[in-house]
Design brief:
The complex is a heterodimer of chains A (503) and B (185).
Chain A: H1 2-14, H2 17-35, H3 41-48, H4 57-82, H5 91-102, H6 106-139, H7 144-161, H8 166-181, E1 183-184, E2 191-192, H9 206-224, H10 244-266, H11 273-286, H12 299-314, H13 316-322, H14 328-339, H15 346-351, H16 353-384, H17 389-408, H18 411-429, H19 435-457, H20 464-467, H21 469-502
Antiparallel strand pairs in A: 1-2
Helix pairs in contact in A: 1-16, 2-3, 2-4, 2-16, 3-4, 3-9, 3-14, 4-5, 4-6, 4-12, 4-16, 5-6, 5-12, 6-10, 6-12, 6-13, 6-16, 7-8, 7-19, 7-21, 8-19, 9-17, 9-18, 10-11, 10-12, 11-12, 14-19, 17-18
Chain B: H1 2-7, H2 17-20, H3 24-48, H4 64-85, H5 107-127, H6 129-143, H7 149-170, H8 181-184
Helix pairs in contact in B: 3-4, 5-6, 6-7
Classes of the chains: A mainly alpha (503), B mainly alpha (185).
Chain lengths: 503, 185
C-alpha cells in the first residue's frame, strides 16, 4: 500500500508535460544510440550522460530511465538484423533472432522482442516497485561491515561467474580497483597516485573509464581488423504483426523469461548474461519445435529478450537500495547519481522520494513509449545499421572526446581516456572482460571506505567481518559462489578419470 | 574439459585455428600484458610509501588498501604470466560483425588513429572543439579506409557544429570555442 501511494506520487512527478518530454527524448536518444552497431547499453548510457549534465536531478533521472530502457531495446534490434550482439546479454537474441531474420521472419522476431521487452519490463518494474522499499528497509540494518561483504560478493560474482578465465577476470577487476585509488583519500584527505597532476586529484571518472574501454578500445579493435566486405543487414520481411501462432508460442516464454530474469537481476551477484542463457536452455527444453532451435525459433528470442529486460529492471533493486551496481551499465548509472551528490541506498528513499519514485514511474512510462515508438519507427532504425563503418567509428571517437571534455575540461582527461582506450584494445585482443574493471573502479573506493569505517568502529579488530552474523553470511555466500563451481568441476573430473581407469 | 572436447570432435576442424593455434608473437604479446600488470602492481607498491599518514589517525590509514591492491596485482600478474606460458592463450571472441578476429592487426590504421587522437587532444584548447572534432573525424575516417575526404570533412564539420551548438548554447556545457570564438561568441 505504501509502495502504491509512493508510486502515485512518482507518477505525479513524471506525468508533467515537461518531464514526459524528457522521458521521450531519453527513450528516443537511447534507442537511436543503442541501435548503432558496436554500441551496447553500457556505452549508450555513458555516451549520453553528458546530455543530462545541465538538467535538474529529477529531469536527468527521468531522461536516464528512458535512455536505459531505450538502449536495451536498441541493442536487441541490432542483434536481430545484424548479428552484432554488442554485449554478452544479447548473444542469444543474436543467435536465434538473426536466424529468424535470415529466414524472412525478421519482423516477427523484432515484434516478439519488442512486445516481450514491454511485458517483461512492466512486470519487472512492478516487482521493483514492491521489492525496493522492502529491501531499503532491510538495508537500514546494514553497517559498514555488511556493505563491505556485499561488495566482496559482487566482486566475486562478476569475476568468478562470468567470462572464460578466472585470472583474466581478476586482471580486469584489479585494473579497475587500481584506477579507483587515484585521487584524494576520502577519509584523510591525502592525495594518492596523482603524480603531481592537479586534475588527477579529482580521481578518474568512471564514465571516462567506461567510454575509454568500450568506445575507444572497441574502435581501435574494430579498426585494426575491419572487415571490408559489407555486413549483411537482413531486410525486414513480413507483417510487423505477429501471427496467432507467434503469439501462442511467445507469451509463455515472455513470462518464464521474466520469472528467471527479475530475481537473478536483483541479486547482488546479478547481471543479465546468466538469466538469458538460463531462459534459452529452458525454452529449448520445453519447446514443441526443438528442430527449429539454432535455426530461428521464436521462443529462443521471446524468452531471452524478456529475461534480459526483466533483469535490467532487477539490477535497479540493489542499485537503488544498496548503491550496489552489478553490471557496467549500472556502474555508470551510479556514477550519474554521484554527480548530483546523491548516494543510492536506503536513505535515498527517505531523503529524495520524488526522485526515486519519479524515476520508477518513468520506467513504466518509458517502457510504454518504447512499445509505441519502436515498431512504427523500425524502418528508421534499420537505416542506421547501414552507416559506413569509418563514419560510425569516427563519430564514436568524436563523442567519446566530447563526453570526457564535458566532464574533465582538461587535456589530462583526454590523455587518461586514450590510455584507458589502449588498455581496452588489449583487453579486447586478449579476451579480458571489461565489466569487472568498470564495477571495480566505482566500488573499489566504496569498499575501502566501508572497510576502514568498520575497522574504526571495531577499534582495529579485523574479526568484525566474521562475528557480525549478516556480514559473515554474505561472505560465506561469496566463498560458496567462488569455490562451489570449481569443486563441482573437480569432482566431476575425478569421477570421469576414475571411470577411465576402470575401463 | 575432455568431455567437451570429444563432443566437438564430430565437427570438422574449422574452428581449431582461431583458439588453439596462436602464433609465437601473440603469446609473446600476451606475456607482455602480464608483465604490464606486474609493473602496475610494483608502481603502486612503490608509490604507496610516499602517501602521508596523518599522525592523529589511529585506525586503518590511507596506505593499507593500496598495499592490498598492489600486492594483488603482483600476484595476479604472475598467475596470468604462468597461465599464458603454460599454454592457455586467449582467443578474442568474435562478437562483432565489423571485426574479423582472425586477421592480423593493421598497424597503419592504428597509427593513423593514434595520430588523429593526438592531434585532437593538442588542438582542443587552441583551435576549439568544432575544428578539433571535425579534423579528428576526417583523419579517423581516412585512417579507417574512407577516401571521400571532402564528404567526410563536410560531415565532420556539420556534426561538430551541431554538437557544439546543442551542448554549448542549449545545454550550457562549456566547450572550448577556440579560433571560432568570433563566430560563436
Amino acid at each position: 500500500m505504501d509502495s502504491l501511494s509512493s508510486l502515485a506520487d512518482g507518477f505525479g512527478v513524471a506525468l508533467t508535460p515537461e518531464n514526459l518530454l524528457w522521458a521521450l527524448v531519453g527513450v528516443f536518444l537511447g534507442t537511436l544510440v543503442g541501435v548503432l552497431p558496436g554500441i551496447g547499453p553500457a556505452l549508450t548510457v555513458a555516451l549520453l550522460l553528458p546530455v543530462t549534465y545541465s538538467l535538474e536531478p529529477i529531469q536527468a533521472f527521468i531522461m536516464f530511465a528512458g535512455i536505459y530502457y531505450g538502449g536495451m531495446y536498441g541493442g536487441s534490434t541490432t542483434s536481430i538484423l545484424l548479428n552484432t550482439p554488442g554485449e554478452s546479454a544479447s548473444i542469444i537474441t543474436a543467435l536465434e533472432g538473426n536466424r529468424m531474420a535470415r529466414r524472412g521472419r525478421g519482423a516477427a522476431a523484432l515484434a516478439t522482442a519488442a512486445i516481450g521487452s514491454f511485458v517483461a519490463g512492466t512486470i519487472a518494474t512492478i516487482g521493483l516497485t514492491f521489492l525496493a522499499p522492502v529491501m531499503a528497509d532491510f538495508a537500514l540494518n546494514f553497517g559498514p561491515a555488511e556493505y563491505l561483504a556485499l561488495i566482496i560478493l559482487a566482486f566475486t560474482a562478476i569475476t568468478a561467474l562470468l567470462g572464460s578465465s578466472l585470472v583474466r577476470g581478476l586482471v580486469s577487476l584489479f585494473f579497475g580497483l587500481a584506477l579507483g585509488l587515484i585521487g584524494i583519500d576520502a577519509l584523510t584527505g591525502q592525495p594518492r597516485f596523482a603524480f603531481g597532476n592537479q586534475h588527477l586529484l579529482n580521481g578518474v571518472d568512471v564514465v571516462t573509464i567506461a567510454v575509454g574501454l568500450f568506445a575507444v578500445g572497441e574502435t581501435l579493435w574494430v579498426a585494426s581488423r575491419m572487415r571490408h566486405e559489407k555486413a549483411d543487414i537482413e531486410p525486414i520481411k513480413g507483417s510487423l504483426w505477429m501471427t496467432k501462432d507467434d503469439w501462442r508460442r511467445s507469451w509463455k516464454p515472455w513470462l518464464r523469461g521474466t520469472a528467471i530474469g527479475f530475481p537473478i537481476g536483483t541479486l547482488p551477484a546479478g547481471g543479465a548474461e546468466i538469466p538469458t542463457f538460463l531462459s534459452y536452455s529452458l525454452e529449448k527444453k520445453l519447446t514443441k519445435h526443438p528442430e527449429e532451435f539454432g535455426k530461428g525459433a521464436i521462443e529462443g528470442v521471446a524468452g531471452p529478450e524478456a529475461a534480459n529486460n526483466a533483469s535490467a529492471a532487477g539490477v535497479l533493486v540493489p542499485l537503488l537500495t544498496l548503491g550496489l551496481p552489478t553490471s557496467a551499465t549500472a556502474a555508470i548509472i551510479l556514477a550519474a547519481f554521484q554527480r548530483y551528490d546523491l548516494q543510492p541506498g536506503p536513505q535515498l528513499f527517505d531523503r529524495n522520494p520524488d526522485l526515486v519514485w519519479g524515476l520508477i514511474a518513468s520506467l513504466y512510462i518509458g517502457n510504454l513509449m518504447l512499445l509505441v515508438l519502436n515498431l512504427p519507427l523500425v524502418g528508421l532504425w534499420v537505416r542506421l545499421l547501414s552507416i559506413p563503418r569509418p563514419l560510425l567509428y569516427g563519430g564514436i571517437l568524436v563523442f567519446a572526446g566530447l563526453g570526457t571534455w564535458a566532464q574533465s575540461q582538461s587535456i589530462t582527461g583526454l590523455v587518461v581516456l586514450y590510455v584507458i582506450g589502449i588498455v581496452g584494445y588489449l583487453m579486447r585482443r586478449f579476451d579480458i572482460p571489461v565489466g569487472p574493471a568498470v564495477v571495480g573502479a566505482i566500488l573499489g573506493p566504496e569498499a575501502e571506505t566501508h572497510f576502514r569505517r568498520a575497522m574504526q568502529i571495531s577499534q582495529g579488530d579485523a574479526t568484525v567481518f566474521l562475528t557480525r552474523p549478516l556480514s559473515a553470511t554474505i561472505l560465506a555466500i561469496a566463498v560458496i559462489l567462488f569455490l562451489g563451481p570449481r569443486l563441482w568441476r573437480l569432482a566431476r573430473r575425478r569421477r570421469a578419470s576414475s571411470v577411465g581407469v576402470a575401463d | 574439459m575432455t568431455g567437451e572436447r570429444s563432443e566437438s570432435d564430430d565437427q570438422p576442424n574449422v574452428d581449431t585455428q582461431a583458439p588453439s593455434a596462436p602464433t609465437g608473437f601473440a603469446r609473446y604479446a600476451e606475456t607482455l600484458v602480464a608483465v604490464g600488470v606486474e609493473a602496475m602492481g610494483i608502481v603502486i607498491l612503490l608509490e604507496t610509501r610516499d602517501i602521508r599518514v596523518p599522525r592523529a589517525f589511529s585506525s586503518v590509514g590511507p596506505r593499507v588498501v593500496p598495499y592490498i591492491i598492489g600486492w594483488g596485482l603482483v600476484i595476479i600478474g604472475a598467475w596470468y604470466a604462468i597461465d599464458v606460458v603454460r599454454g592457455r592463450p586467449a582467443a578474442p571472441s568474435a562478437d562483432s560483425e565489423d571485426a574479423d578476429p582472425t586477421l592480423p592487426a593493421d598497424w597503419a590504421v592504428l597509427g593513423g588513429l593514434a595520430l588523429a587522437l593526438a592531434v585532437y587532444a593538442v588542438l582542443m584548447e587552441p583551435a576549439g572543439f568544432v575544428l578539433a572534432s571535425a579534423l579528428l573525424f576526417t583523419m579517423a575516417t581516412f585512417a579507417m579506409g574512407s577516401r571521400l575526404i571532402v564528404r567526410d570533412a563536410g560531415i565532420g564539420l556539420a556534426v561538430s557544429v551541431i554538437t557544439f551548438l546543442v551542448f554549448s548554447e542549449w545545454l550550457g556545457i562549456r566547450l572550448p570555442p577556440g579560433l571560432l570564438e568570433p563566430v560563436f561568441g
